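Kindly review this record before class:
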Amino acid sequence: MLETVLIIVAALLIGIGGGYFIRKVIAEAKISSAEAAAKKIIDEAEQKANSLKREKELEAKEETHRLRSELEKETKERRSELQRLERRLVQKEESLDRKISNVERKEEELRKKEEQNQEAKEKLDQLYQQQLHELEKISGITSDEAKEILMQSVREEIEHEMTMMAKEIENQAKAEGEKKAREIVTLAIQRCAADHVSESTVSVVNLPNDEMKGRIIGREGRNIRALETLTGIDLIIDDTPEAVIISGFDPIRREVARLALEKLVSDGRIHPARIEEIVEKTRKEVDAQIKEEGERAAFETKVHSLHPEVIQLLGKLRFRTSYGQNVLQHSIEVSHLAGIMAAELGLDVNLSKRAGLLHDIGKAVDHETEGSHVQIGADLAKKYKESPIIINAIAAHHGDTDFNTLEAVLIQSADAISAVRPGARRETLEAYIKRLEKLENIADSFEGVEKAYAIHAGREIRIMVKPDRIDDYNSVKVAREIVKKVESELEYPGQIKVTVIRETRAVDYAK
């Protein structure tokens, strides 16, 4: 058993030793083969490296040669460019030298000419002083006096030109202003055409026959006395056939009396009790009519939010006349005119129409209250809480106070347009003639006026001046002074045109 183990151990040792030897031999053989392969690879790599090195060296030599050639070419080009620039600089320097020489030569010439000019100036100054001395001796005046005469002549010429220019500018401004104003006023009048009925202080009631006069008078005149007492109006029963005249200053009372009498005549029952009943009933009807007229005026002019008392006052103007012109219709027309002109001028249309409608409100009660209708109207406007603009327009529409707004100026203009248009008002012949005579006397009072004529119903005055006393430019001054005097001394509706005429006539006869 032991031997077997030893044999096995010995076999194992032999096996291990043999395997080691074999593996060592095989490893050495592989190492030798690997070294030979590595050497071969190294040799090949060295050959390739040498070959690549030679190729790169050749390429580097070729690139170096190419770069050197390009550098030499570029250097040559730059050298030639520098040479060209040098030549140009040399040429410019030569040109600059020539120019400097020319400038120096010209400066020298200018210096010589300046010296010559200075000498000539000194000679001219001497000659001027000699001539001035000779002129002073010949004329007998000094140079300062001659300057003063010349300045005076120039001053007069400038003043003359300034007057001409001022006249031209004034004429142009007047023409443009008149044209624009004419357009606005014409448009306003065209758009506001109103019919007016002339009123008076008497009314006539037609009767069916003359027997009715006795019934109106009544037994011992009791009927007529009752009617006059209840209405406050005078009844005139004369020889006028089939008519009774009702006379009274208060137009409302006169209207009540007229309507009441017409109803009594129509009814036929005329006695004091019936008269009292009819008068009372008629008075209520007239009050209702007054209210309706006031509301109609407000509606027609589109003026709203008026106090009821103001409406009543407007209605009363229906029975009020001024120079034959119905005051309510006049107020409506002024309202329309003011509104149209305000629209053209860019002002407050509603405010202007309201002020135009209320501008104569004082005439509704001017026979009951002390003071002018202007002041009464302004007080009424304050009482019924109208705006300050409307109060000022009412107070200033006849020039009693200053204008605070443009709307107030429009009310005055619209009032004048409505009043002075043909047929609007009646004027007595005596007052008309006096106004024309006063207008002509004002013009005749100026020095140099030969004759003055009032024409166009007093809307224009033509003045003939003496041509040897007043020249063309003083004619403008005379016209302006006459206008100022007319405005300060004469009362008139609308405007008055003043025309000054200057002419020279040469007359001779062939024989």
Observations:
- The chain has 14 helices and eight strands.
- The radius of gyration is 62 Å.
- Confidence is low (pLDDT under 50) at residues 190-199.
- Strands lie at 202-206, 234-236, 243-247, 321-322, 325-326, 449-455, 460-465, 497-501.
